[in-house]
Specification:
single chain; alpha+beta; five-stranded antiparallel sheet; 14 helices; binds adenosine-5'-diphosphate
């Protein structure tokens, strides 16, 4: 038997729970008239207790769900109870909420049902979150990219169907296993490097590497790796998106091989044509005939252009094979630039090319390769600007470095293209540039040669106004 004192203590506790609950706790009589309405009900549905007490519960039930009330009463009448019944309710400001209801009968001493108590939990956010997760899950299931997540110690925690297609292992085989199973023995050191980058808050984007499949096949992949963080912002794991780029790599390899063979085959006949032109030029000097001298001069210019092109092709294939040694010497920058400008004036006679240099600098670098960088930049400046426009080569000498720039007054480059210019085979396709021929390897070579010199090529450009390409070299 509960004493009167205990009973009032018990009621006080119950009242405190109802007051402080995050869930709406509402009761009503059998006619649907609200008899209690707690603070959470006020927060969730927007009506105050004064507005609701004595009113019909139908105020918060969307019209198309009024019939639910009769069903609920029938279930309760037959001694039942409803747990986590998911439905919709409408707020004072006409928002539709997803709610989960737990409904129990209120009985009098005789055991007759006199009313109903409802606990309503607002699950709108939860539903939205579930919908978002379902969309994400569908993307992860259907994408062509392998999406894998793992712990910071490299233990795989998720593995999508494309990961199975790409690497041959099922998720049952891989979850709980080490990611090192996919990394070829000579690349195992990549993993700690990637993790340390992520720990510093960096994201690794389009990192090209190799991975090994279940059948020991080596595939080329491009990886984008991001940290997984908990609510406190701590990194708890890593997610990887891997794209199979084996075909693209093979295609690039075929292009490189083709260029290497063609340029090698072209070199021999070109050298002999050059020798004959030089012989004829020597002869023409003795017996000057205006037409012959001019024709041989033009032939000589074309031979030089072709030689530069072949140099680019050969350097590209050398670079791909990782064998482009630098032959560093100390030389005068001014002398090199004057030589190059003389050559450029001969190759691109339609342009005015000027050199602005405050003072000479001694540079320790590969003279031929820096020459090739400059000829490529000068060639582009001439190619992508109108004839008779000005091309400026500037040198600014700083304390430790000298900055070299090539500026033109040409068609310029849109910001989106500026980021991709230095990729291999990248060419801008605009109405103005579509009839200008090229292979898209010049700036790639410029960038790679400068990287070998611990330098970087940069561009500033405005479409329709012109472009400036610049880089820095250390003083000797
Ligand atoms: P190519 O000139 O053979 O196409 P590059 O690698 O030298 O290859 O240049 C890549 C692209 O960058 C070119 O196709 C061109 O669209 C753009 N570009 C390079 N230099 C300039 C410049 N000075 N002005 C405008 N566009 C340029």
């Amino acid at each position: 038997m509960i004493s009167n004192q205990n009973l009032s203590q018990h009621s006080a506790i119950l009242a405190a729970i109802v007051e402080s609950s995050d869930d709406a706790i509402v009761s009503k009589d059998l006619n649907g008239i609200v008899t209690s309405w707690n603070p959470a009900a006020e927060r969730i549905f927007g009506y105050t207790a004064t507005e609701m007490l004595g009113q019909s519960i139908l105020k918060i039930i969307p019209a198309d769900r009024h019939h639910e009330e009769t069903t609920i009463l029938r279930i309760l009448g037959s001694g039942g109870r409803l747990d986590h019944f998911e439905t919709k309710r409408i707020t004072k400001d006409k928002r539709i909420l997803d709610v989960s209801l737990t409904i129990s009968p209120i009985k009098n001493k005789a055991g007759e049902i006199t009313g109903v108590s409802k606990i309503a939990r607002d699950i709108t956010e939860l539903r939205k979150q579930e919908e978002k997760e379902a969309v994400l899950a569908a993307i992860i299931e259907s994408t062509d990219d392998a999406i894998i997540s793992k712990t910071l110690t490299g233990i795989i925690t998720s593995w999508n169907p494309s990961a199975q297609r790409m690497f041959g292992y099922s998720s049952e085989e891989m979850i709980g296993q080490s990611i090192l199973n996919l990394i070829p023995p000579d690349r195992k050191e990549e993993e700690p490097l990637i993790i340390s980058k992520l720990k510093q808050g960096e994201r690794v984007k389009h990192f090209e590497t190799k991975r090994v499949t279940k059948t020991d096949k080596i595939i080329d992949v491009s990886l984008t790796i991001s940290p997984i963080k908990n609510k406190a912002g701590e990194i708890t794991g890593v997610s990887k998106i891997a794209r199979d780029i084996t075909e693209k790599k093979q295609e690039d390899q075929r292009k490189n091989d083709f260029m290497a063979i063609v340029s090698h085959e072209l070199k021999t006949p070109l050298t002999s044509i050059k020798t004959y032109v030089q012989l004829l030029q020597a002869r023409a000097k003795k017996n000057p005939d205006e037409f012959t001298v001019s024709a041989l001069g033009k032939a000589d210019v074309q031979i030089k252009k072709m030689t530069n092109m072949i140099h680019d092709f050969l350097n590209l294939s050398r670079l791909e094979e990782g064998r482009m040694p630098l032959n560093k010497t100390t030389f005068s920058l001014c002398e090199l630039l004057e030589e190059l400008i003389l050559e450029a004036k001969m190759l691109f006679p339609g342009h005015e090319i000027v050199l602005q240099m405050d003072k000479d600098s001694s540079i320790c670098a590969d003279r031929d390769k820096i020459g090739q960088v400059m000829l490529n930049l000068l060639g582009n400046a001439a190619k992508y600007s109108g004839t008779e426009s000005l091309i400026k080569v500037c040198c600014e000498t700083g304390a430790a470095k000298v900055k070299i720039s090539v500026s033109d007054e040409g068609m310029g480059i849109a910001p989106a293209d500026q980021q991709k210019l230095f990729e291999r085979f990248y060419r801008v396709h605009t109405l103005h540039s579509s009839n200008i021929s090229g292979f898209g390897i010049g700036l790639y070579l410029v960038s790679e040669i400068l990287k070998l010199h611990h330098s970087e090529i940069k561009v500033q450009s405005e479409p329709g106004v012109g472009s400036t390409f610049y880089f820095c070299l250390d003083h000797a």
